[in-house]
Amino acid sequence: MKHHLLKYVKPVLVLLLAVLGLCVPLPAGSAEDRPVVLMIARGAAPYDGERSLKVAIDKEANAIIDKLNGLGYIVEVASVDGKDIQAAGSTLKVDKKLADVQVAHYVGVIIPCMTTIYVPQSAVKIVQDMHSRNLPVAAQNGAVVVLDAAGVLKGRNYSTGEDM
Hints:
The chain is an alpha/beta fold and 164 residues long. The protein has helices at residues 3-6, 9-20, 50-70, 121-132, 144-150, and strands spanning 36-40, 74-79, 85-87, 90-92, 96-97, 108-111, 137-139. The chain has a single domain, classed as Class I glutamine amidotransferase (GATase) domain (Rossmann fold, 3-Layer(aba) Sandwich).
């Protein structure tokens, strides 16, 4: 990921949390009582190499997970193959395959950029299903391509990095 994109990570994270309406911590409760947010990880090869994928894991995906966990949410990560995503010593733990996702289990979905333009059709279907149920859907930077493929950006304002 190019250095100029890094200055956008923090503002984008703040915007995403606002979009999801997750600005107020939830009361303490058992793990079973906590709402679950789905994170869709697009694990294809990044356009800018392994170093950019490491940044995506550390500064995007894991940062979002940490923030949501701190606010009382559980985050489950799903990808096409269900395998952990690794780069340069960093790991994004993946909990399940996208094919195994049951939308009714989640309160919303978030898709980090992950420095790739890969758009899994299973992710598109999940976003469409969540959107049809009026659940929050959010994407960071280049991941808006998934929202676009799902048709949920029509008539809406959005932005992404200049090289996306």
